[in-house]
Amino acid sequence: MTHHQDNTMPDIDSYSLSRRTVRRYSPEEVPAELIYRLLEEASHAPTTGNMQLYSVIVTRDDEGKKALAPMHFNQPQVTGCSAVLTFCVDLNRFVRWCEVNDAVPGFDNLQSLMYGILDTALFAQQFNTLAEMHGLGCCYLGTTTFTAPDIAKALNLPERVIPLTTITIGYPDGESAASDRLPIDAIIHEGSYSQYSDLDIRRIYAEKEALEESRRFIEENAKQTLAQVYADVRYPRSNNETFSAILAEFIKDFLPRKQ
Amino acid sequence: MTHHQDNTMPDIDSYSLSRRTVRRYSPEEVPAELIYRLLEEASHAPTTGNMQLYSVIVTRDDEGKKALAPMHFNQPQVTGCSAVLTFCVDLNRFVRWCEVNDAVPGFDNLQSLMYGILDTALFAQQFNTLAEMHGLGCCYLGTTTFTAPDIAKALNLPERVIPLTTITIGYPDGESAASDRLPIDAIIHEGSYSQYSDLDIRRIYAEKEALEESRRFIEENAKQTLAQVYADVRYPRSNNETFSAILAEFIKDFLPRKQ
User: Among residues A70, A90, A134, A177, which is most buried (max CB within 10 A)?
Assistant: First the structure.
């Protein structure tokens, strides 16, 4: 079966509405040349002042994937995928360029970090979209910022290179379900922001809360509402604060010294 | 001339390699329904735990665009475009959802901010790609984080809503040039990060430095190297630090209290 010969997109709209995260992959390898070509195309995504403040570490060997797995809480897609792509904010290359060219950069601050975060996120998302359009299955790993110092060590990242997000890729194994989304008018504000009334909130989240899956989450976690599942179980304060402290220490050169 | 009837994409690869930023637009309006449809499609971009921690403020009237223009340093595309889309990290809607559902969120920390930043950047980039594929011209405005508090005031943003980036859209007026990009092997690291030698740096940036435009920048700014133009003129330490202080104050609830 040939997966990657067809570069035509019959219908952008139906792609974008039906796209889904793919966590289970067939054993077939994604050719390195396809990964490189997609990364090259993705590098044409918009970037701050054309600085391209990012790097990507491509992990294709089993050894490397096994080493990264615990940093992603052993989610099975890390060892089960064809390649793990760790997208990093990279201020190092820019600073090195300045050093070689008698320039003195002032990039040890919050805005410079923001340039890099946006550049990296846009690059990663462009890759994700192009890969999906080429028939690959992709999954973002939000664990990347939780364990950034460990990932940096595993991937030999120098100073000023910060793991931001990770995408696992492979050819999809079976079907995946598309995720639900809030009604679009919940996201869009015309002209200026309208604060949500209690009634708005109930309406916006009604469909999500009514999903079979949501009701199962509530029951399994012995909660009363889906919001409690999110606030107490999936993204509890204790985890958010623990991982924030780790990340803050890791990126401290870019954060304000005192407040 | 009908711009937006053709949803087929003849060749993804040639789109992605030739895409370009468009700063000049024809007077023709982009229909609101097209903007909404593209935003709806973009909302299917990946999002942290399916939380969709973003909102977008759509500014289509001249009054609104004029009000935003100074916050984007009066770049002409702000008043010259058909619509200004301000993409915001939105932790407010999630917190309101918790409030209405007897849940207590712990989202006043760095990781929560990162969830929101990634969600918002991925949503914005998915919109940008889909809009470009539909023949619209788009331009990101990096000024958004420089003047975040002023934009928040102009757009009536409540607490926990942070302007992250802005995209101006319209039908392209004339041709735009594609930006140069670094050779892709400068971005990709196989297995682990390889630090750049001086020679690597010279090779990676050689093509960019040799561009007619780069040489003009150096001459106009009376500098010796292109890196000096970036470090001294385009992104000088003084600006980076000034705008970092403004942003840090604005998002202080999400940053560590002391270090």
Answer: A90
String of DSSP letters for B78-108: HHHSSEEEEEEEE-HHHHHHHHHTT------
- The β-bridge partners of A138 are A169
Q: Which chain A residues are closer than 8 Å to B103 by Cβ?
A: 225, 227-228, 230-232
| Contact (CB<8Å) B16/A189 | no
Question: Cβ–Cβ of A118/B21 closer than 8 Å?
Answer: no
Nearest by Cα to A77 from A3, A158, A173, A162: A173
Handedness of CA B176, A119, A122, A88 (dihedral sign): positive
Contact flag B54-A187 (C-beta cutoff 8 Å): yes
CATH class name, domain B22-170: alpha beta
Q: Is the pLDDT of residue A73 over 90?
A: yes
- For residues A197-233, one letter each, b for 16 or more C-beta atoms within 10 angstroms of the residue's C-beta and e for the rest, the string is eeebbeebbeebbeeeebeebbeeeebebbbbbbbbe
Q: How far is CA B243 from the centre of its chain?
A: 16
User: The domain at A24-170 falls in which architecture?
Assistant: 3-Layer(aba) Sandwich (3.40)
Residues 20-79 of A with CB under 8 A from B: 21, 36-37, 39-52, 54-61, 64
Task: Give the phi and the psi of residue B73 in degrees, each rounded to 5.
Answer: 55, 35
* Percentage of residues in chain B having pLDDT higher than 90: 90
What are the residue ranges spanned by the domains of chain B? 22-170, 184-254
Give the closest of A19, A57, A191 to B64, CB-based.
A191
CB contact under 8 A, B109 and A244: yes
C-alpha distance from A250 to closest chain B C-alpha (Å): 12
Q: CB of B84 within 8 A of CB of B71?
A: no
CB contact under 8 A, A114 and B145: yes
User: Does the beta carbon of A206 lie under 8 angstroms from any beta carbon of chain B?
Assistant: no
Local structure of residue B229 (DSSP, 8 states): I
Report the chain B residue with the minimal C-alpha distance to residue A165. B118
Residue B72 and residue B106 in contact, taking contact as beta carbons nearer than 8 Å: no
**Using one digit for the tens of pLDDT, what is the confidence trace for A201-231?**
999 999 999 999 999 999 999 999 999 999 9
Contact call for residues B56 and A28 (beta carbons, < 8 A): no
Tell me, what's the pLDDT at B178? 86
